[in-house]
Amino acid sequence: MSALPPYASTGQRAWYYSFRVICGLIFFFLIAPIVVIIPLSFNAQDFFTFTPEMLRLDPEGFSLKHYRNFFGDDSWQTSMWNSLKIAPMATIVSVTFGTLAAIGLSQPHVPFRRAIMAILISPMIVPLIISAAGMYFFYSRIGLQGTYMGVVLAHAALGIPFVIITVTATLVGFDRSLTRAAANMGADPVTTFFRVQMPLIMPGVISGGLFAFITSFDEVVVVLFVGSAGQRTLPWQMFTGLREQISPTILAVATLLVAISIMLLATVEMLRRRSERLRGMSPS
Amino acid sequence: MADASNVDAFVEFERVQKSYDGENLVVKDLNLTMPKGEFLTMLGPSGSGKTTCLMMLAGFETATHGDIRLDGTSINNIPPHKRGIGMVFQNYALFPHMTIAENLSFPLEVRKMGKSEREEKVKRALDMVEMGAFGGRRPSQLSGGQQQRIALARALVFEPELVLMDEPLGALDKQLREKMQFEITHLAHRLGITVVYVTHDQTEALTMSDRVAVFDDGRIQQIAPPDQLYESPENSFVAQFIGENNTLEGTVKEINNGIALVQLDDGELIDCKPVNVSRPGERTRVSIRPERVEYNKDRLQEGVHTLKAEVLEFIYMGDIFRTRLRVAGNDEFIIKTRNAPDQVRLQPGQQIEIGWLPEDCRALDA
Predict the structure, then answer these.
(1) How does the average pLDDT of chain B come out, rounded?
(2) Inter-residue contact A238 to A250 (CB < 8 Å)
(3) What would the pLDDT profile of B272-283 be if each residue is shown by its tens digit?
(4) pLDDT in the model for residue A27
(5) Residue A2: its pLDDT value, please?
(6) CB contact (8 A) between residue A181 and residue B86
(7) How confident is the model at residue A280 (pLDDT cuts 50, 70, 90)?
(8) Closest chain A residue to B106 measured between Cα atoms?
(9) What percent of chain B has pLDDT over 90?
(10) Given A56, A222, B177, B240, which residue has the most CB atoms within 10 angstroms?
């Protein structure tokens, strides 16, 4: 927002400042709950509150014991590894199918494109608990309930809509004469896809993949239904941890997840900017 | 049309039809034969079917009916990437994520050509369009004219025998466009390639081509070398579409010794060359080029019919004078005269007499 022009009226001045205050309040409302858990996770006590020592910034009041507990505890470690096994696999599946679907649905000759799109996007719109219950009954019938594959597929189904939406958005600006040019120069459709189309829609694929990863990594409802003890993921462990033994270890885990998310977002943003530079566009 | 039975036809369209919706034909019964090495331009207003024809030749559209042959072989069932035809696209279609050299190298890579040979050919192609220093840049770092040259180089680098160009100069400014017109024609003739060029700019068509095919309503209205097309249009559409043209409407009175006597709607009589009128009583549209109209009595032939005209407007255009007249009730009758030292400048309001050679005045379909 530019500086206030010299001819601004009193009303404009008032709005200029109140606009900033409103923005600040919205940011506070969004970020405060997340920020507050970070210092709490360094609590030396087994409480969810700020101790008087912490408020005095006394080093005695802080410790890494909850982090030690997370890295030392078997059930936490197993759940972390489960999450790390499920989320990337689910991401790969979502990205592959989501990208293919987006490309297919961007072809003008495909019949019922809108209807197909709506069906593929529906996991985003249908309440999660309904999807989860539906998947539970369906997967039990076909023997996928309680298996690693089952959870991966369930999470992929949740991730696909994000990939479709982001890839479709990049395809809107995609110049179809580029694929024609490639074909004209002798490239078969597969070569054309990997050499021309894929590099250009990469930003959409990457952001879609990121959303799919986070969806799987954060997901608790579906995994409770579709998974079994063998697929106990990090969010599941946190959920049961909250219910059964209120321990600040959860705060340590949450802080780690926030850090991972920020790192992922930063990496992806950097990749996206690089790729847009390659496309000859100024990064936005 | 005369060489339709040419034995060494390189590109052939035989009774080709195209419909997108199964009802309306965009291309109706197209027949066209091109010898090797010809520069042919498809010219026409938008929606006339010229781009569809180009796309069918490139393989991006399939003909609904008929046969398209390249060097004697039907290419109806050959996918675009196996046709080996070069193409310059309207928006250049350079790959934005590759450098200029990578763009040019792409068609060679997909042909599994060795690295050193590729580099050699890319360098030669870039030098050919005087862009040798730009190999490391990206398309977005080049100006429109430079991108155009790269697109041209990329279409030629794999040495296709046939190159298609879809309004390649449409996005350039006038001066650059004229310069590129010459460069493209010179290059095409030097390399001996066959070119099918699509444009809606008639000047471009006339200056660049060996032959021009004028499209309208899904059909070729006339296909002829530029001078024939301009001087002997075969129907009113071509006469109107190519260059500036004056039309007068009338009825054929009689046809004698290859000269038609036409009575204009205001009653005056003129001599014309009958082109597609055959019998007295027929309605006709008479077409005369503005630069073939003469008003200097000394230069008019004996015995030709002349018409009275009133000067409405005189426009000085530098190299030529453009004068608007009222002739036989038509207020938009234009004559063009060269700005020569002895040329008379007509004044508005002046009454003059105009005439022309009968063969310059063509009686066409109404």
Answers:
(1) 89
(2) yes
(3) 888 888 888 889
(4) 95
(5) 66
(6) no
(7) low
(8) A185
(9) 47
(10) A222
B114/A contact by beta carbon, under 8 A: no
Token reading at B219: 């059909």
Q: Which residues of A38-58 are buried (b: 16+ CB within 10 A; e: fewer)?
A: eebbbbbeeeeeebeebeeee
pLDDT at position A44: 82
Query: B355 CB contacts (<8 Å, ≥6 apart)?
Result: B293, B294, B295, B300, B301, B304, B305, B306, B307
Look up residue B308 and give its two tokens. Answer: 């009275």
Q: Residue A170: its chain B contacts at CB < 8 A? A: none
Query: ipTM strictly over 0.85?
Result: no
Does B267 contact A at CB distance below 8 Å? Answer: no
Contact A162, A268 (CB under 8 A): no
CA distance B134 to B130: 9
With CB atoms and an 8 Å threshold, state whether B85 touches A185: no
- Compare CB distances from A183 to B81, B139, B141 and report the shortest one's residue: B81
> Is any Cβ of chain A less than 8 angstroms from the Cβ of B296?
no
Residue B39: is its pLDDT beyond 90?
yes
Distance CA B360, CA B363 (A): 10
User: For residue B166, which residues of chain A lie inside 8 Å, CB to CB?
Assistant: none
Smallest Cα–Cα separation from B71: which of B39, B17, B33? B33
The token duo for B195 is: 């070119």
What is the nearest CA distance from A77 to chain B, expressed in angstroms? 42
Distance CA A41, CA A50 (A): 10
Residue indicated by tokens 């509150």:
A49
Which residue in A218, A219, A204 sits closest to A261, CA to CA? A218
Instruction: Give domain limits for chain A.
Output: 10-61, 75-278
Of 3.40.50.2300, 1.10.3720.10, 3.40.50.300, 3.40.140.10, the CATH number of A75-278 is 1.10.3720.10
B93 → closest Cβ in A175, A186, A187:
A175
Return the residue in A184, A191, A200, A279 with the most chain B beta carbons within 10 A, the one to mutate for interface testing.
A184
Nearest to A40 by CA among A254, A213, A221: A254
